[in-house]
Amino acid sequence: MASNVKELNEYWTDIYFHLHYPHTEKISHQVIRILQLVEKKEEIGVNEVATYLHISHNTASEHVKRMVEKNLLIKERGLLDERKVLLHLTKVGKDVLHRNTSLDEEKLEQVMNQLADKEKEIIEQAFKILSERAKTCL
Known about the structure:
The structure is a single chain. By secondary structure, the chain is mostly helical. It has a domain at 15-103: Orthogonal Bundle (Arc Repressor Mutant, subunit A), CATH 1.10.10.10. Helix content is 64%, strand content 7%. The chain contains 7 helices and 2 strands, in the order H-H-H-H-E-E-H-H-H. It has a two-stranded antiparallel ribbon with strand order 1-2. Helix 2 (29-40) packs across helix 5. The longest helix has 21 residues, at 117-137. The mean pLDDT is 93. This is HTH-type transcriptional regulator SarZ. Keywords: DNA-binding, Transcription, Transcription regulation. It is found in: Cytoplasm. GO terms for molecular function: DNA binding; DNA-binding transcription factor activity. Residues 1-132 form the HTH marR-type domain.
């Protein structure tokens, strides 16, 4: 069975469109990408942000500075190497990231409750496999 990537993408965008949280904050896509990077990877500093976003160190530093001022991130010295300054999400940052990248759990629960147990199992297994493979390809 050949994969139909365009169809999968269409399904994903339909799911996200109908089940995402209402967006209440005015927040840029770059800020969300930085929050995701800090959440998903270990030992992230300004250099890693610059590399990830393909921007200069100075630009990345300005983004991070504003995010610290908005209480989305905190900076901490590395435990093993105190010369390193590492970024971590604050509680506010975690909440903002969740609302801007996750599905609304109440909406998702409503949809899942409409499914048969076998359908739920298939969906959960498919998402688990796709998530695991996605983590190994990057």
